[in-house]
Design a protein that fits this description.
globular; TIM Barrel; 7 strands; 12 helices
């Protein structure tokens, strides 16, 4: 159902830190001719500092204006809250919903299974698991993913462990129609080569055309061209994580004349020193 280049959208803010809905529409205009779906209200969208009302409004707005499928960010470390966001995403018209593994609580594998089972039982749209151990403090193992894949409506995983061996084991253990998406831009091509279907991406906010060109080359069997584009994009992948995501990508969009605004506290704006490094990379890719 989902493959290709899928940007995890930033949530642009106005000067007073209210959500800039017109900015969301402007950014979608830039992206939609290149991307295969979008993810609002995820990590890159600063979901952690959106109120529940704002979270729902952002998802609803993107569902209303986007011309591509919408995978709504709906995760929480509280199953009850995740169920609320899941139901709201479904009501908004999201094509699917994505749920980060519960952070801070550190559930064991049985708790993870029951969390996703409760969500899947409560909605009728597809569910995508999001594994990002660096932020949540837990790793969803291949054994657990194999079990999760047996749940009705759990159709795939955004895998951001950075562990290619683990990703390969997940692909090996799950059915052919289970969708494995890279959650790390730099892992996109390696994961495609071992059976992944695409990427939920930070860099695609900035260079969707180059990422789409890489994916297209891969799909057409032109691995040489895909590899060349992978290495061309590597400096962008690196610079967008020179600081905590989404600090650098918001600055990049601002430099490109797109909608961003400063991140909400406790995140702060990119430093001037790092901004100069970012400018150099964006200039080398003719993005500014």
């Amino acid at each position: 159902m989902f493959e290709g280049i899928i940007p995890a959208l930033v949530t642009p803010f106005k000067e007073n830190f209210d959500v800039d809905f017109e900015g969301i529409a402007r950014n979608l205009d830039y992206l939609e001719k290149y991307v295969d779906a979008v993810v609002p209200a995820g990590t890159t969208g600063e979901a952690a500092t959106l109120s529940h009302e704002e979270h729902v409004e952002v998802v609803r707005y993107v569902c209303d204006v986007a011309s591509v499928p919408v995978i709504a960010g709906a995760g929480s470390n509280s199953t009850r809250e995740a169920l609320f966001l899941a139901k709201e995403a479904e009501k908004a018209g999201a094509t699917a919903a994505m749920f980060v593994t519960p952070y801070y609580n550190k559930p064991n594998p049985e708790g993870l299974f029951r969390h996703y089972k409760a969500i899947s039982d409560a909605i009728s749209i597809p569910v995508i698991v999001y594994n990002v151990p660096s932020r949540t403090g837990i790793n969803t193992t291949p054994e657990t993913v194999e079990r999760l894949a047996s749940i009705e409506r759990v159709i795939g995983i955004k895998e951001a462990s950075g562990n290619l061996k683990q990703v390969a084991e997940i692909i090996k253990r799950t059915p052919d129609d289970f969708i494995v998406l890279s959650g790390d831009d730099f892992m996109t091509l390696p994961i495609l080569l071992i059976g992944g279907k695409g990427v939920i991406s930070v860099a695609a906010n900035v260079a969707p055309h180059l990422m789409k060109e890489m994916f297209k080359a891969f799909k057409e069997g032109d691995i040489k061209k895909a590899k060349e584009l992978h290495y061309k994009l590597m400096p962008l992948y690196d610079i967008l994580f020179i600081d905590t995501n989404p600090i650098p990508v918001k600055k990049a969009l601002e430099l490109m004349g797109l909608a961003a605004g400063k991140p909400r506290l406790p995140l702060v704006e990119l430093s001037q020193e790092k901004t100069e490094k970012l400018k150099a990379v964006l200039g080398s890719l003719e993005l500014i």
